[in-house]
Task: inverse folding
């Protein structure tokens, strides 16, 4: 992390009725503090897809619809009839040979499944594949309510910025007064899901931890 010091001294004169007034601007220190807070995910999104091929567009789409219906039924068998599932992508495209002649069609349908019980991720994937899914698009993790963790990260970053400003001021033989300006930034970095097909009955998935980062930049007065 890089800390910058800005000590600004400005003077200007205003002439009116033979009087000159000189004003000294505030001297300031600018610093940026960063902080990261780790949190355990309590939400996951699993994207599963079905891709089918056929000579005609109608057959490709029909086969895809039947296969996706089977996948959805299998997933609901694990998560219940009120499972949160939505289609996020559907395509139907022609395929061509080297001469540019249409030789068939490919239909693809990707559904997103939201889980709040992370122990069911592996079973959900296995059920989807067993039902006919032939593509695991992605697995992502998140927080149902990220605000408390984001707030803590911001508090830590703000405290770090102020501590740096006081440390710099102490080294210069001055003190820090009021904070004149403050700005924030931040990000949430979800963990990468690690899964593998194994001899076990359920595909193992390790969620890891979510890293919530924040940065706070301040401009503090020197007194």
Result:
């Amino acid at each position: 992390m890089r800390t910058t010091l800005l000590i600004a001294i400005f003077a200007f004169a205003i002439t009116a009725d033979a009087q000159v007034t000189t004003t000294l601007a505030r001297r300031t220190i600018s610093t940026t503090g960063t902080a990261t807070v780790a949190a355990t995910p309590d939400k996951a999104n699993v994207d599963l897809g079905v891709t089918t091929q056929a000579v005609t567009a109608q057959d490709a789409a029909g086969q895809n619809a039947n296969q996706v219906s089977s996948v959805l039924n299998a997933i609901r068998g694990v998560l219940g009839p009120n499972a949160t599932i939505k289609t996020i992508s559907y395509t139907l495209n022609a395929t061509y040979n080297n001469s540019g002649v249409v030789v068939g069609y490919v239909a693809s349908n990707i559904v997103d499944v939201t889980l709040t019980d992370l122990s069911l991720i592996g079973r959900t994937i296995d059920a989807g594949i067993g039902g006919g899914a032939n593509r695991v698009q992605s697995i992502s993790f998140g927080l149902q309510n990220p605000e408390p963790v984001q707030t803590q990260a911001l508090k830590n970053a703000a405290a770090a910025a102020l501590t740096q400003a006081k440390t710099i001021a102490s080294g210069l033989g001055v003190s820090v007064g009021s904070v004149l300006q403050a700005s924030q930034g931040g990000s949430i970095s979800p963990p990468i899901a690690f899964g593998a097909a194994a001899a076990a009955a359920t595909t193992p998935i390790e969620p890891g931890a979510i890293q919530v980062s924040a940065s706070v930049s301040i401009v503090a007065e020197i007194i």
Notes: The longest helix spans residues 147-172. The CA atoms of residues 66 and 132 lie 9 Å apart. The radius of gyration is 29 Å.
